[in-house]
Design brief:
With 148 residues, this protein is mainly beta. The chain has one domain: Sandwich (Immunoglobulin-like), CATH 2.60.40.1930.
Amino acid sequence: MLISRHLPALLVMSACAAGLGCAAHHLEPRLTDVAFSAQPVRPLEAPQVRATRFAVGDDAVSLWLEFADVLDTHTLRVRWHDPLGRVSGDTGPIALNTEGGYRPRAGVVARLPLSGAPASLLPGTWTAEVLWDDRPLVGRSFEIEAAP
């Protein structure tokens, strides 16, 4: 499912074209895609295999987020909520677009360790809560399945 969640608008100046002058318009960073994967993922490459179910023996759950029209530096944070609703993991602030300026596309990957980690002891429905500049942006659920 494609996400088209708009983030707070940023005011920018458009390029002057054909002597018509400059016009102010809003540039809105957008979350354009969200995916989970059991495979390692790079920030600017969509996962080859998307998943919403993971085995306790999988190495990790990777959460991949893609954004468009990012202006300036922002922070993201992912909180991992276990089946009991508790925050069982927190990435802390993840800097996005640290060089500042405009990026037509940006990506972030957060990982929840599984195999041999505490998360492997809590099978059930988990939720990844994503915060943009400390404000809720999106939440997505996934399953960690108990060993047979």
